[in-house]
Specification:
Helix content: 25-40%
Shape: globular
Distance between the termini: 69 Å
Order of helices and strands: EEHEHEEEEHHEEHHHEHHH
């Protein structure tokens, strides 16, 4: 009989993993607009329609496809060259909200060694040391990479709770948060799909959303950010938000932008982005 494959984990509240701002769902960003300056993140992922021979040895190919389908606003068939042949792929367009890194080396919510918004912390934080967009198949390797990060003081001793049991995530709070994250994405689908319809739409050029061509040309993962204003305007257009809600979000973000711009710890490049956002949001408030 094979030995049980058990992986344990407990957070020690060392704060070391709170080293950057979180990425959250669209609806989470609206709820956390008093705490974080958010930018709309537009990401493009490619995945072949069938497993690549010699790859996907972990057996997680179809789980990855299912998760991408859960979180994507749009899935589009395409073809790409592989080994000199054109093979079917699917492009997944995903919208999320990325909090600006307004503090050098740590999340803005980390204060005095602890999370100042712990009861309201985003789902991405609730699923630490794993991430809700990654499947069970990679959980053990993801955990190993996480706890091996320099400076992290996680508890993986024999007294820590079991997180993964034979490839299955069994820690109830983490498993629950992962389920909630997928449910939030599905609940946001009407909103994200409406934003996706405006990508590349000449009639929506004023929304300043990146095009698919720009995403494909962007370095690395094929992701770009812009302000949250386009997402909030689309929410008004489809009846998820009132014009008053939209203006209130602009006002909340303006107040936070002003505070963050004045913070000495804000990196110079981030401050430039915040100043541009402040100018845009002021203009939108004045032109209501």
């Amino acid at each position: 009989m094979a030995a049980p494959d058990i992986h344990r984990f407990a957070c020690t509240r060392c704060g070391a993993c709170c080293n950057r701002a979180p990425e959250v769902a669209l609806s989470e960003a609206a709820a956390l607009a008093d705490h974080f300056v958010f930018r709309l993140m537009v990401s493009l992922y490619w995945l072949p329609d069938r497993p690549v021979p010699g790859q996907n040895a972990d057996g997680g190919f179809y789980e990855r496809k299912r998760l991408l389908a859960d979180f994507a606003a749009r899935a589009s068939p395409t073809k790409a060259f592989r080994d000199g042949k054109r093979v079917p792929y699917t492009k997944y367009l995903v919208f999320s909200a990325l909090a600006a890194d307004t503090r050098a080396g740590h999340c803005v919510a980390l204060m005095d060694g602890g999370c100042a918004i712990y009861p309201q912390r985003p789902l991405a934080c609730r699923t630490v040391p794993l991430h809700y967009s990654r499947g069970d198949h990679s959980a053990a390797s993801d955990l190993a990479a996480f706890v091996a990060s320099p400076g992290y003081r996680c508890d993986t001793s024999d007294t820590a709770p079991v997180l993964i049991d034979n490839g299955r995530i069994v820690d109830e709070p983490v498993a629950t948060a992962r389920h909630q994250a997928r449910q939030v994405a599905l609940n946001d689908r009407r909103w994200s799909t409406a934003i996706a319809r405006q990508v590349g739409n000449p009639a929506a050029a004023d929304l300043a959303l990146p095009t698919i061509a720009e995403l494909q040309a962007s370095a690395g993962a094929g992701a770009m950010t812009t302000t949250m204003a386009p997402a909030w305007r689309v929410a008004v257009d489809i009846g998820l938000m009132t014009p008053g809600d939209y203006q209130a979000l602009l006002a909340r973000q303006l107040a936070l932008l002003g505070r963050e711009i004045a913070t000495a710890d804000c990196p110079p490049t981030t401050r430039e982005t915040l100043l541009a956002m402040h100018t845009e949001y002021q203009r939108l408030r004045e032109n209501r």
